[in-house]
Design brief:
It is a single chain. By secondary structure, this protein is an alpha+beta fold. The protein has one domain. It has helices at 3-38, 50-53, 126-133, 144-149, 157-163, 166-174, 198-213, 217-220, and strands at 41-43, 63-77, 80-93, 100-110, 113-114, 119-123, 150-154, 179-183, 186-190, 224-225. An eight-stranded antiparallel β-sheet has the order 1-2-3-4-9-8-6-7. Strands 5-10 form a two-stranded antiparallel ribbon. Strand 8 (179-183) and strand 9 form a beta hairpin. It starts with a helix and ends in an 8-residue tail after the last strand.
Length: 233
């Protein structure tokens, strides 16, 4: 390979690297503006503490785990106080030539109630159908369409049935189909395995607000309300 070809390859690689750095810079700026609009703080730096803050499986996957472009702080949704932490997340699986870095966006909302049961609602996949055939069943509901679409688990079946009532089922079926997991009073929202456009963070907050507004009062009165959001970040 002559020197001209080598220089051309280097130049192309430099242009590609500059392009992706520019995209990342634009993303950081857009998320920083969004944080300011929402009254949240913003930190673009890597945060390797999410697996210590939250017990959800996502934050313990792979290695080289870190959050970044993080928006955080208290928000009022539907008249109730939530502490929100959301942003981008990455982790690496495999090794050598098979190493793969996964990048996705997430939102975690610390709910305003204490000692809520574990609840998982997500799209049902092929592995779930196979597992069901082996006896590893999820919770079934009266709506066959809902039961075919979603896989639901909970540490308290009554709580799951109370939260996932007919109106909630329609809400979940008619809108996006995210991964929703409440664990240790923190609700994790995921949408597939990709990063969200900056505007979609606001959309997922609206979705979370609508989701919790559909919790019946006879469910929420079972739990002690959190009196202070400070110190739970």
């Amino acid at each position: 390979m002559d020197s001209f070809v080598i220089l051309a390859v280097i130049a192309v690689a430099a242009v590609i690297a500059w392009y992706f750095r520019s995209l990342e810079r634009e993303r950081r700026v857009a998320l920083e503006y969004l944080a300011a609009e929402l009254g949240l703080s913003f930190d673009s730096r890597a945060d390797g503490t999410l697996h210590r803050r939250y017990a959800h499986t996502l934050f313990s996957r792979g290695r080289r785990r870190s959050g970044y472009n993080t928006l955080s702080g208290p928000l009022t949704l539907g008249g109730r106080p939530f502490y929100v932490r959301m942003g981008d997340y990455r982790y690496t699986t495999g090794s050598g030539k098979n190493a793969r870095t996964h990048r996705l966006s997430y939102a975690v909302l610390r709910v305003p109630w204490i000692e809520t049961p574990h609840l998982l609602i997500r799209r049902e996949g092929i592995a779930d159908k196979i597992g069901g055939g082996l006896g590893f069943d999820d919770i079934d509901f009266e709506s066959e369409e809902f039961s075919r679409t979603f896989w639901v688990k909970s540490s308290d079946r009554k709580f799951a049935y109370d939260v996932v009532h007919p109106v909630m089922m329609r809400f979940l079926l008619e809108g996006p189909k995210p991964h929703v997991e409440i664990l240790d009073d923190a609700c994790l929202l995921l949408d597939g395995t990709s990063r969200w456009e900056p505007s979609r963070f606001r959309g997922w907050l609206r979705w979370a607000e609508a989701f919790f507004e559909r919790w019946p009062e006879h469910v929420t009165v079972r739990f002690q309300e959190r009196s202070d959001l400070r110190g739970i970040a």
